[in-house]
């Protein structure tokens, strides 16, 4: 992906790229606009190929939530420090923030309905409520003939 300089943040995939020095400005600007920031901590796409899927889904989520969400991609060199700050334990993760407050994280690629449900709950939750993490859920199937 080609990166262009745009104000304090570079653009990546149509979304601004933030780092340790620019993330607070983006969070403050997004909050002043009455929106929630969604930051993508993608990790190395060679190690985490689903990061590319999440990067494709993020602009679609922003469009679906209209003016309620604004997205950005965390620069690779800032992922460790910002990951610690926001509580990222799994990559890729979407980090939802209202101002400087982390509302929650959604880890890995999810079904569209999971994204819509979790994001709706996070952005509609009252301020001060506990942040949550959504991880991939793998269904457990019982083998044929197993007792229920």
TrEMBL record:
Gene3D superfamilies: Glutaredoxin, Single helix bin. It holds the Pfam family HyaE. Transmembrane segments: none annotated. SUPFAM superfamilies: Thioredoxin-like. It comes from the Bacteria. Belongs to the HupG/HyaE family. This is Hydrogenase accessory protein. It comes from Bradyrhizobium ontarionense.
């Amino acid at each position: 992906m080609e990166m262009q300089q745009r104000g304090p943040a570079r653009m990546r995939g149509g979304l601004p790229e933030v780092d340790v020095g620019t993330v607070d400005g983006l969070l403050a600007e997004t909050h002043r606009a009455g929106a929630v920031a969604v930051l993508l901590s993608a990790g190395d796409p060679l190690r985490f190929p689903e990061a590319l899927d999440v990067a494709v889904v993020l602009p679609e989520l922003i469009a679906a939530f209209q003016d309620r969400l604004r997205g950005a991609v965390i620069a690779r060199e800032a992922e460790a420090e910002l990951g610690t700050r926001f509580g990222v334990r799994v990559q890729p993760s979407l980090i939802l923030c209202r101002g400087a407050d982390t509302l929650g994280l959604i880890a890995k690629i999810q079904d569209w309905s999971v994204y819509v449900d979790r994001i709706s709950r996070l952005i509609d939750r009252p301020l001060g409520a506990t942040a949550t993490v959504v991880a991939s859920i793998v269904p457990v199937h019982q083998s044929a003939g197993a007792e229920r």
